[in-house]
Amino acid sequence: MNSLLEYRRHPAAVVVLLLAALATMGGLYTALKPTDVSAQSASYSEEDVKEGDKLFQANCATCHGEQGEGITEAGPSLAGVGAAAVDFQVGTGRMPLAAPNVQAARKEPQFDEEQTKQLAAFVASLGAGPTVPDAKYTDLEGADPANGGELFRVNCAMCHNFNGSGGALTRGKYAPSLEGVSPTHLYEAMETGPQNMPVFSDTNLSPQDKEDISAYLDEMHSAPNEGGNDLGNLGPVADGVFIWTIGIGIFLASAIWLTRKSS
């Protein structure tokens, strides 16, 4: 008993107990952590990776390094960003970046679908990360636009406007319009959090939630506007500008015309 007390009073006893507790907690987390419910599925051949490497060296290595390790003040490391980030950035024309700017703008893609897939395969080989979503979560079959609308208003509307028409942010940045963006790219944006956008992992928004949001935007942008000209769906700002510049202008012109008429 005395020897046990002596061990407990030893200066290293606290360190040993802490290490044992950390090892126990790590083991419990590994055993009990929730299974990944990700909707992502993509497999690439060695040929895809090889061809993607060639494209990467010719178009991306200048900024991101030959092995995607990143170059200071040129481009970030791509290790672990996953195929989804590449498919989004390259598929929407944001990359390769034409010139340094506050934010990469969407433009006509430089690479076709096959080349984009090959680039994604190479970057995916650099480290595990989000992959291109399964088609069953981007075909909008059975999606719930009403649920998607509620989720969009809670999580996205403060930046992208209530119908995804976009809006200004700070320091010259902006939330882009989501009109015309494919469900796959919308899903990938939520999954990877490009530029100023936060990441919405599957624990924040499930794969079905993401599809519902895409269905809401698709319905919003394809539905006819029963109220006349939507003025860009920019809300009270656009309405106010119209009223002050056009509406009041018409009233002033009418008043001047009537005054001249009466005189």
From TrEMBL:
Say yes or no: keyword Zinc present.
no
Subcellular location(s) per record: Cell membrane
List ligand-binding residues for heme c 1.
60, 63-64
Protein's UniProt name: Cytochrome bc1 complex cytochrome c subunit
Cytochrome c domain location is 47-221
> Principal localization?
membrane
Q: Which reaction does it catalyse?
A: a quinol + 2 Fe(III)-[cytochrome c](out) = a quinone + 2 Fe(II)-[cytochrome c](out) + 2 H(+)(out)
**Residues holding heme c 2:** 156, 159-160
What do we know about how this protein assembles, alone or with others? The cytochrome bc1 complex is composed of a cytochrome b (QcrB), the Rieske iron-sulfur protein (QcrA) and a diheme cytochrome c (QcrC) subunit.
Q: Which InterPro entries match?
A: bc1_cytC-su, Cyt_c-like_dom, Cyt_c-like_dom_sf, Cytochrome_c_Oxidase_Subunit
Q: How is it modified after translation?
A: Binds 2 heme c groups covalently per subunit.
Among Gene3D superfamilies, the record links this protein to: Cytochrome c-like domain
Keywords noted in UniProt: Cell membrane, Electron transport, Heme, Iron, Membrane, Metal-binding, Repeat, Respiratory chain, Translocase, Transmembrane, Transmembrane helix, Transport
Q: Does the keyword Transmembrane helix apply?
A: yes
Task: List, alphabetically, the SUPFAM superfamilies matched.
Answer: Cytochrome c (SSF46626)
Which top class of enzyme applies to this chain?
Answer: translocase
Q: Superkingdom of the source?
A: Bacteria
Enzyme Commission (EC) number:
7.1.1.8
